[in-house]
Amino acid sequence: MKITGADVLISSPGRNFVTLRVRTDEGLHGLGDATLNGREKAVAAYLSEHVVPCLLGRDASRIEDIWQYLYRGAYWRRGPVTMAAISAVDTALWDIKGKALGRPVYDLLGGASRDGVLVYGHASGRSMDEAVNEVGRYIDLGYRAVRAQSAIEGLAGTYGVGKGKDNYEPAERGAVPAETVFATRPYMDQVPRLFERIRDEHGWETELLHDVHHRLAPIEAARLGKDLESCRLFWLEDAVACDNPEGFRLIRQHTTTPLAVGEVFNTVHDAKLLIDEQLIDYLRMPVCHGGGITHLRKVAAIADMGFVRTGFHGATDLSPVAMAAALHFDLWVPNFGIQEYMRHSEETDAVFPHAYTFEDGYLHPGDAPGLGVDYDEALAAKYPYEPAFLPVARLADGTMFNW
Ligand code: GCO
Ligand code: MG
Questions:
Q1: Ligand 1: distance of its center to the CA of 314 in Å?
Q2: Which of 115, 166, 203, 303 gives a 20 to 30 Å CA spacing to 268?
Q3: Residue 285 and residue 266: Cα distance in Å, rounded?
């Protein structure tokens, strides 16, 4: 089965997405998500200029060889743009293989290891009251695990807090990034109070998670982890900047709060030290940024050797194609932990009709051949791309900080 073409599809049904559609001479096509939030056009150009021409005429069934060709052959290897592009090709080829064999992708990986994929939803509030109530709403929706984020009192525009009732969406349309302000001290004081209130109000059955979003120094993260111990979190995420893996040595020595990291990692080399030294509990690198299914299954195997479980990134900027790929992987992977699941908007869901379903706190990828996701090109045409950026953050005195 030969690759005859590949289309780089850019649309904005609710938010921007880049989707790769690989076509074959047997009439089958496969989809891959190539979205890199706020950097969409960089991946699109990498694909159309440097990848698609090299795919033409290749045997679509040789997934591993094509992965090696794109990774080793690039010379400039690794990095989010390159790896998002490789991931999209790889995911599309797994989709094609599943369709060709008439089997869901999870079956090709080794079959289901569980009946459903435990997911966590996002509760957030512009005040602590609102955040506590939102956790309750998610529990009522059937979630067994909920991430909670609240605006920091006195600060506008805290990471993780939605603007209205809609899903939290960090990217903002505009020609340049929005500017936000962060302050460490009130943040660290408030988070333990938030979780104490959530436990008081909603009890102990629901798993609770929190995302620090790379904003603390190791010694600060160590203290926050300690302060949260009595609330029994499922995990504390991205406690320090992603370029400071050694920082986890210090955090680990001080707290028993489980640690998750890796949504911005893109190869196993970003995670190696953390896995080898067992400094984390969950690895968040997803299929669409972590080299596709082909690379991620090696990463997951290495993580398993270090007693680290998976907990893939699944924010709304990962399209339903990425979500489906994650769910097939999650249903199979032996060392599964949890999957993030932010619901997409209705517009997004309509452009990407999909077979996965949510029930009782679990997602299931469905049994359609391949990934079980489609792309409605006619509908997508109604939502043209609009430039959007992730925000940047400064401290109160104007110093640039980590968003
Ligand atoms: C999460 C993430 C997101 C990211 C976003 C960036 O844990 O879901 O931190 O909120 O900020 O995906 O594109
Ligand atoms: Mg995160």
A1: 8
A2: 115
A3: 7
pLDDT at 165: 61
Q: How far is the CA of 199 from the centre of ligand 1 (A)?
A: 24
Torsion angle defined by CA atoms of residues 236, 85, 327 and 172, in that order, rounded to the nearest 10 degrees? 60
Residue 239 contacts residue 212 (beta carbons within 8 Å) = yes
Range 106-125 burial, b when 16+ CB lie within 10 A, else e: bbbbeebeeebbbbbbbbbb
Active site residue 168: no
Q: Which residue has the tokens 């408030």?
A: 190
CB contact at 8 A, 353 and 376 = yes
Query: Do residues 333 and 290 make contact, with C-beta atoms less than 8 angstroms apart?
Result: no
Determine the 3-state secondary structure of 37 from DSSP: coil
Q: Which residue positions in the chain have pLDDT lower than 50? A: none
pLDDT for the residue numbered 169: 85
Give the amino acid at 234: F
Residue of 29, 202, 213, 295 marked active site: 213
Report the top-level CATH class of 109-371+386-401.
Answer: alpha beta
Please state which architecture CATH assigns to domain 3-104. 2-Layer Sandwich (3.30)
Atom of ligand 1 nearest to the CA of 342: 8
Residues with CB under 6 A from ligand 1: 37, 170, 211, 213, 263, 313, 315, 317, 340, 390
| 162 token code pair | 């939605």
8 A C-beta contact, residue 172 and residue 203: no
Cα of 148 vs centre of ligand 1, distance in Å, is 13
Residue-level pLDDT at 164: 65
Phi, psi angle pair for 354, to nearest 5°: -140, 160
| Tens of pLDDT, residues 346-395 | 999 999 999 999 999 999 999 999 999 999 999 999 999 999 999 999 99
Q: How is the chain split into domains, by residue range? A: 3-104, 109-371+386-401
Task: Report the relative pairing of strands 29-33 and 17-24 from DSSP bridges.
Answer: antiparallel
